[in-house]
Amino acid sequence: MPTKKLKEFLDSNNVKYITMSHSKAYTAQQVAASIHIKGKKLAKTVMITIDGSMAMAVLPASYKVDFDKFRDFIKADQVELAPEQEFKDRFPGCEAGAMPPFGNLYQMDVYVAASLVEDEDILFNSGSHTELIKMAYKDFEDLTKPNIVRFSYKSV
After folding, report:
1. Fold of the domain built from segment(s) 4-149
2. Mind listing the pLDDT tens digit for each residue in 113-144?
3. Residue 10 CB partners (closer than 8 Å, separation 6+)
């Protein structure tokens, strides 16, 4: 089941979504394989720091963050991967590494890879390593007000 906070938020905003169960998987690529979809169709959340502030980068599972491109695009001094110990307690009710891409629920900015904007739907972890949420990308964008950035590249 999605985290209570996320489910209440989606329901209170009358957003239509579906939940999908899958066998336990810890990486976005493993999740995509377990539900038989291409990695580009599953969004993963990567925790980053931008000039010392925690933020979420949301990108296709089969992509990686280009930190230099990201930094240059948003004109920051420093953009880097956040160590897990710095964010693991910020997402009550979520399993470590399975947080949904709703930074607005956790007082942090959300940056979405421009390639995800092209999709009709977005599919992402719901707070656990065994369940996903699928919803219209437009609804996701309306609710999170993300910054759209070109910061990722397809991993080989």
Report:
1. YbaK protein (3.90.960)
2. 999 998 899 999 999 989 999 999 999 999 99
3. 2, 17, 133, 135, 143
